[in-house]
Amino acid sequence: MNFKLNFITASLVIASAPAMAADFAVGKANTANVDQQKYQCQRCEANTGYNGSISVAAGYISSDDVHAANAFGTDQDGFVTAVSGDVNYQGDSGYQASIQANQLGFENSSANVSVGKAGLFSVDADYQLLTTYQSGDAQSQLYYDDGMMVPSDEPYTFELSQQREKMGFGAKVKQDFYQGYLRYETEDKSGYKSSSIVTPSPVNIGLVVDSTTDSFTAGAALTGDNWLTELSYFGSQYKNNVNDLSLPYSYDLYAATPDNEAHQVSLSGQYQLDRTVMSGRFIVGRMIQDDDLIQVAGNPIQNWDGEVDTTDASFNITSMLSNRLRLGASYDYSNRENNSSVFEFQQYDFNSLSGSFKENVATDIERSSYKVNASYRISSGYRLQAGYDRKDVERTYSDREQTNEDNLWAKFSIRAIDNVNINVKASHSNRGGSEYLTNELTSSEDNSLMRKYYLADRTRNDIELRVNHSPLDWLSIDFTGRYAIDDYDDTVIGLTESEDYGYDINVNLQLSKQLSAYGFAGQQWINSAQAGSQNYSDPDWYADIEDKFINMGAGVSYGGLMQDQLTLGADYLFSNSSSDTYVTSDGTTPYGDYYSYNHSASLYANYALSDDMALKLTYRYERYYDTDDAQISPNEVPGMVTLGELNHNYNAHQIMLNFSYLL
């Protein structure tokens, strides 16, 4: 018995040794003296040939608001069709191919084709169409025509939506210790988004979107027994096909987004020494923008020579000092050096030129982050983690040129209780920095007491609790609760306090072999307070903003009907969000409230025609409503022209019949 115990102890010591000391992987097994004929699988079949499924869907959509397309995937009203599929091929000699498609025929769809040989090479091509819809009832008396905003006697209605069409091609090659890859992607973006110009009064317009972004990635990696390294390049080029906007009687009212390009070269690596793993990355890049500027009186500048050089570096180390204790540390560095041209620009004073000149400011930003952490296993099922993070930021020509933030956190995990996992995390952080230079660097219209929230002194405390409990074999419950509060004690004008708290709960039930159900609910509250001043001195008005969010849902699925051929199911989702603002000056009044809610439900029946074919009938319903006090009718405010009320209030229905074939 003593020999047996010592032998087991020695085995455990070997098994817990570092991975670099001994490799017990299946691929490293010595099978030279094994008679493999005795252990051949007599019932195994090679998984070669085709497998997967193809599906064709047809249905009908009824909706009177284009916003419903965000949920249904297409803005088509009436009869619709779509094709989806996931087909794979595996050859006897290792060659393989795959084709995936998702809702081809809809305005939100994707497809991918890949061919190659496992462990040697692969080539792929993909396509993605992504469309987002804001409103189909926007109104304007200005319409776009070849770089010109042309006035119209009568308002016309147009759609506020943006579509991105993306195509990509890539290839990878891999040998024993090296691999290489390259990828090219191009994306066309089109549509309209809301914007505004001054003519000289403010006018909201539908700004046309028409741009192309091309990107290219290439790299190579080498791998050793306990190390790896990779050298890569990334480049992108953005081209805007929209020129600067003008009116027939006033030129260069709006400067379109300029063409630009970016380049990055990255070198990264990782090395394992016994139980210590080290990794690092070094990246250099350059962003270039050299488009012409719109011409302003007294500024005959023909070219903008914009250039930003970037440097990023990181280093991480983690070490298992014992089977109980692990230590880690990291350092991240980022530098944005703005080498763009500096010119003198004539300043506007409300609606007229002031006669004064001011240079544009080329701002540099440098960030450094330091982190140390430790993880200690107190005993079986109990683990304590703690860490300290430090972040230093330096901005040139800023109200506050230096900020530093210290964060101390701890996490306690319990796994010792049967069917229960508990995680508790708490943190405390402080942000400070250098002296404020408000009077020197900001406009004379700004209050010298104002503090921008991302620069101001701040104290933050937050705590989070996560619990996973499986009281029964058929029941699991997940709960997350969190609370955080930010105090800006030294801010007189600006954000003074912010509070964020909420919870999420998920329940999953497997009531029987045929019957399963789920449910979830979550709420979040964000309360913030700010102070303002009308006379550029002490605060004379205060605002309290209360944001509330809720989402909940449930679903059920029952199978086994009609001799296991029919499955019925239902899903329901409800979400609600509201934002209430109360302004206190002479009295307390509500201001600019926002409210929205959404009901979404679906019913489905899945019937297996045979082992290879199935039909699925799905009905979906969406009820959506929102109201925003910021949305007003055209000319409701004298001197300001809007795009109209873009609020939503609709019911939408979708019914789809899907036929799928299993290969």
Query: Main beta sheet: strand number and arrangement?
Result: 26 strands, antiparallel, barrel
Distance between the termini: 57 Å
The quaternary organization reads as: single chain
User: Number of helical segments?
Assistant: 4
Let me know the average pLDDT: 87
* Structural class by helix and strand composition: mainly beta
| Low-confidence sequence ranges | 1-40
Kindly state the number of beta strands: 30
Anisotropy-based shape = globular
Share in helix: under 10%
Rg over alpha carbons: 31 Å
- Strand share of the residues? over 45%
Describe this structure in words.
This protein is mostly beta strands and 663 residues long. The chain has helices at 2-15, 69-72, 438-441, 561-564, and strands spanning 49-62, 78-90, 95-104, 109-117, 121-145, 148-174, 178-198, 202-223, 227-240, 245-247, 250-254, 260-273, 276-289, 306-320, 325-338, 344-349, 352-359, 365-379, 382-395, 402-414, 420-433, 458-472, 475-487, 494-510, 515-532, 541-560, 566-584, 588-608, 613-628, 648-662. The chain has a 26-stranded antiparallel barrel. A two-stranded antiparallel sheet has the order 10-11. Strands 16-17 form a two-stranded antiparallel ribbon. The chain is globular and about 80 Å long. Residues 1-40 have low confidence and may be disordered.
